[in-house]
Specification:
The protein is of the alpha/beta class and about 325 residues long. Helices cover about 50% and strands about 15% of the residues. The protein has ten helices and eight strands. An eight-stranded mixed β-sheet has the order 7-5-6-4-1-2-3-8, with helices on both faces. The radius of gyration is 26 Å and the shape is elongated.
Length: about 325
């Protein structure tokens, strides 16, 4: 009597926000690329409060395919929360995170699985850019600065498109902080990893959810603050240096006044120094206030996300 060999289950996690023009094509591409592989797959689509027909399309797909699990948020909680929810609801021995906009090549899933099967618990992808634009240059320099200043390193140029073993999934799901930065988390957990290059496809439908330089700057500072106290340390050092300079200058003015008497000149320079000092003080207070806001967000203990419903087709087809 032959023993039945059970296939390994791999979860495909796809955060979705206003992707009505991409979902069907993305699903078709998944089927095309994954059907020949000797694994059982489940598809975990996380609807992150989409305003278009994304949810209805996902429901239609779920009614026809019992591998599909749709996690519908009550509102938009952001991609970080959607990734966490996908990992929470994934039941596979490994999970692959991939965007549903078809920019990340589904063909690379096979390579990720092969590397995972070789014993790598975390396999990441990075963007293979022959010609780097200004955004890519700034992103690279940001990672360099961050990793130079911080004890907890960020995996440089890593994308969210990756595969992780069940052991890694459980570790990440145990980290329930409200202010999340997924790249920082994967760097913090300390597992050895492999990286493979991918070519990013052009978006065929919809608009990019990533904004311009202002959004990138806010994203960079927020990620820095979430995983590092370096800005506070820098603010402390700036404050210390300026205080020392101010004290020395105070002694200079004091003894100069004693020796030469009162001197009313230097009004313009005094105003400049005062404005500079006030600017530095406000900058330091702003940095401290940002960290206090992060602390406030954590102590409220609100959930990372709220699920409106989970749509799964059972064995009876319901």
């Amino acid at each position: 009597m032959y023993k039945k060999i059970m296939k390994k289950i791999v979860s495909i996690i796809a955060p979705c926000y206003n992707e009505e023009g991409n979902i069907n094509d993305f699903y078709d591409e998944l089927n095309k690329q994954l059907t020949p592989l000797a694994y059982d797959f489940e598809f975990v689509f996380v609807n992150d409060g989409s305003k278009d027909q994304t949810l209805n399309i996902l429901k239609t797909l779920a009614r026809s395919d019992n591998r599909i699990k749709v996690v519908d948020f009550s509102k938009n909680f952001g991609k970080e929360a959607a990734i966490l929810a996908g990992l929470d609801y994934a039941s596979g021995e490994a999970a692959i995170i991939i965007d549903a906009d078809l920019q990340m090549p589904v063909t690379k899933i096979k390579d990720l699985i092969e590397l995972w099967q070789e014993g790598n618990k975390l396999v990441l992808t990075y963007k293979n850019e022959r010609k780097k634009g200004l955004k890519s240059f700034l992103a690279t320099k940001y990672y360099d600065v961050y990793n130079y200043l911080s004890d907890d390193k960020i995996i440089k140029n890593a994308l969210d498109f990756q595969i992780m073993d069940r052991e890694v999934i459980d570790v990440i799901c145990s980290m329930r902080e409200r202010s999340r930065f997924f790249k920082g988390i994967t760097g913090f957990i300390g597992y050895n990893y492999k990286m493979i290059p991918i070519e990013i496809n052009d978006r065929t439908s919809g608009e990019s959810k990533f904004g311009g330089f202002k959004t990138l700057f806010n994203y960079a500072f927020r990620s820095f603050a979430i995983h590092s106290d370096i800005p506070l340390k820098i603010a402390l050092k700036i404050g210390t240096v300026i205080s020392m300079v101010g004290f020395i200058y105070m002694l200079y003015i004091f003894f100069k006044t004693l020796i030469k008497g009162v001197d009313v000149s230097g009004y313009a320079s005094l105003i400049i120094v005062m404005l500079f000092m006030f600017g530095i003080v406000l900058l330091i207070l702003g940095i401290m206030g940002y960290y206090i806001a992060l602390i406030y967000n954590e102590v409220k203990q609100r959930p990372n996300y709220i699920v409106n419903e989970v749509i799964v087709k059972d064995e009876k087809g319901e």
